[in-house]
Each structure stands twice: as structure tokens, then as C-alpha cells.
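S.,

Sequence below, as promised.
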Amino acid sequence: MPRFPQISRRPHFAAALIAGLVLSTPSWSDSIPATVLDPSLQVETPLATGLSQPIGIVFLQANDYLVLEKASGQIKRVTNGVLQTTPVLDLAVNSASERGLLSAALHPDFPSTPYVYVRWTESLSGVDSTAVADVPLLGNRLDRFAWDGSSLVFDRTLLRLRARQTDNIPVPGQPGTNNLNENGNHNGGVIRFGPGGKLHVFVGDLGRRGWMQNLVNGPFIRAPQVDDTFGGPEPDDAHLSGVILRLNDDGTVPSDNPFFAVGASIGGQVGANLQKVFSYGHRNGFGMAFDPNTGELWASENADDAYAELNRVVPGLNGGWIQFAGPISRIFDWKAIEMLQYGRALQQVRYPPSRAAYNPAGAAPRLFMMPGAVYKDPEFSWRYEVGPSGAAFVLGEALGLANQNTLWMGSARAFSQVGGTGGSLYRIRLTVDRLNVDNTADPRLADKVADGLFRTQKFEGTESETMIIGRGFGTVTDIQQAPDGSLYVVSLTDNAIYRISRAP
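The prediction came back faster than expected:
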């Protein structure tokens, strides 16, 4: 088992990531109409028929875009508002829980370089499936396809990542199985190209409990110090999770990645994987967006029960999970909520919240700080889960000066499911230097936390009022700005594509 060379676990603290909600089924279409609260804007529904569980959208050009369907594995084309009858790609996916056809991105030089990158979960049986065990161990794939003008043709596989959550399988030498059933959540999946043409891939923690979750010896108190039946806790191919990866467009690894030298010193499978890591210590997330003004990466992370996050992800970031969520100064509150108010045991119960530290002084030394890693608090947090999801920046003045350069984010639960802030859209303003969230509209947010009130279904909106810009959009899995500057909002539960534009 490879050993990590001379690791300092003392974190560096800067100014101010974590996730995983089960993406819900389309039977939960929202019970209130989609509405924008800014009177200068309007919402339309350019596509509301012919879709089943849409999860992503990619613009080929104006009035020509692709829509991904989570459970069918199909990518469909919409030209001049008309959904085409023949899909451009049909993959055999396993869509249990948060798996399925998840995200797509065009090559930065598209169409001159006609590649489309697709993140999906393959089924072991070779047909579309929802059976939780019907996936290979490394069933999460990142593939590159070539666009020939009418269809996507397979080119190569760039990544094969862990798919199975087998915490219900006994680990030899350890007591019990801890979890009753195999799961398929915390799957991550969103992909985005950033500055320099580098592809970023969000991988959820998949229930793993190892180095990338700040557990240098894994989740168990006694030997064998492994993560699960398949080994660990080092991030070999079966345990690389809870990370954002950064790749070249051909799947090779950029030499300026933050842990490239560290990985080279270790070698083997673990070292090669560490070289791909841009940031770690993440729980799960559905939203990533690059600020077009600065190139900074912003990502949403879901909480278990306490402290959902919005982060500006710097190179080498250690987001703190599983030692805590939210600002490190709030660790006692996070621990109390996770232990006492909902009893969820952080879902994977091999490392319960009772083992977390009680204060920042106890938590900081527990962080697994690789050479070059840095910890900083989130730019914003919600004390109770509000399910942040798909995200996008607004570039230009198409939505008016008041909305220029704002960050928009959706919700991972529909209003019909949870009430409260379910189905909401959030509009988030940044400070002048674009490094932090501008909270001046509400003095209560000076601490960078929306201290919502206790509610059995969470999604409570106290102190989020100035951020909410829309309601009734269902489970928003993706937001993209169209070539004309309008925002297209993908609703998994409404089986619809919404368009937000200037009101007449």
C-alpha cells in the first residue's frame, strides 16, 4: 500500500465546498407556475413536450441546441424550437438515484474542433436500467464524441470512475455492514471547460471515506485500515471520489495541476490519480460555473442536513468534508444538527458525526493537507440544506444592467416535494473584486451564512430572501446562457426547458 510522503496536516486559512441530493423523478412536477420575481424579466417555456427527465443543455449555435435525458440515455436535438425525432446519441445508462446521462460540454474551439464530451453512468446489462447494482465498479464514464453534423460518434474514453456504493458488503475484519442497502447517490457528474481549455469534472464522494474525504486512515477505528471491500483509503481508481478533476482536452493531465509533483513522487495508480485532482474534500455537487470576467471556478455543494455551500474553488482547495461542512467556525453547530435534529448519520454510517471534532482547534489538525493544499471557508453557506444545483453566470447586458455578471443557481428539489424554497432560482451578486458574495443587501448575511429556521423538510428560506429571483422551476439540473443572452433553465421534474429574457 503506497505511503504518502511527509504530509503536513496543518491547514492554511484564507477568507471564506460539500453535496448530494437524490435527483428526483418527473412525477414531482412543480405545483406552482414558474415565475421570475424581477419585473424587468419574463419566463417562457420554449419546450414542454417530448422530454423525459431532461438534465442538461448544450448550444451548438443560436436556435440549435442539444438536450440530455437522464434516464433514457438519449441526447436530443432542438432546431428552431422543434424537437427532432431521432436522437443524436443513445447510451445504455444506469439511472438509479443520481446516476444516468449527466452532463455534456463542447470543445472550446467547437465547431472547428468538433468534439463533445459526455459524462454518464453505464449499465452492466447493456440496456437502460434503474437497478442499483446494475453498474460496473468503474461505471462512471467520461467519453469524447465527434460531431458529424447530425450525430455523435464515439472517439475515446477519457475517464472511468467509481460508480458502485457497496457499503452494504461486509469488510473482512470489521464489524457489520453498517449500511443496509447499496446506494447510487453522491455521484456528481457536472463537467465544464475553464480557462486554457482545461476540462473540469465534479466527482461526488460516492459514500467513500478515505484520503479525499480527509480520513488518512479510512473510516474504521481498527485494522485493516481500508475504505471498503475493494480497498482504499488511498485514491486508487476504485476510490477516487469527492474531487474536482482537471484534464487536458485529450484526457491527459496538465503539468500545472496543484498536486502533479506530489502524484509523480508517489507513482502508480494513486499517484496518477492525484495528478488529476484540482480540489478535494467535497461531498457532492450539481453546479459549476466559470466567471467569464475572471476565470474563477464557482461550485455549489449540497449538505447532508446542515451547511450547504457555494464556493470559489481555488487550485488545491481542501473543502473540509467529512470533518465538517460550512465555515470551520460553525463546526459545533454543524455537528449538533447532524447528530440531534435529523439523525441521518451522514448517510454512510461508517464515520458518524459523533466522531467529528467539537471546535475549530480540534478539526483543523484532522484535515488531510497534501503539499500545496489550502483550506478556506465557503464564500456562502446555508445553515440548513436548500439543495443548490445547476449554476451559470450572466454575461453581457441582455438581461439588463441589474443582472449583468450575476451568478444564477437552481434548486435540487421541486416546490411540490418540499415546499419552502424548493423549485427556487437564486441570483447571487459578487463583490467588485469578484472574489466574494456581495451580502450588502441584507445585513443579516454579513457572516456569510443564511441562518434559516428549523423545518422538518429543510428548504427554509429565512435570510435567503434577497437572493431568490424565481419560484416554481422544479428540480433545476442545468442553467445555460444562450447565444442571444437569455437564460435557459432545465427542469428535470417539470420535463421542460424554460427561457428567461427581458420583458417587452
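Confidence is low (pLDDT under 50) at residues 1-22.

Coffee later?
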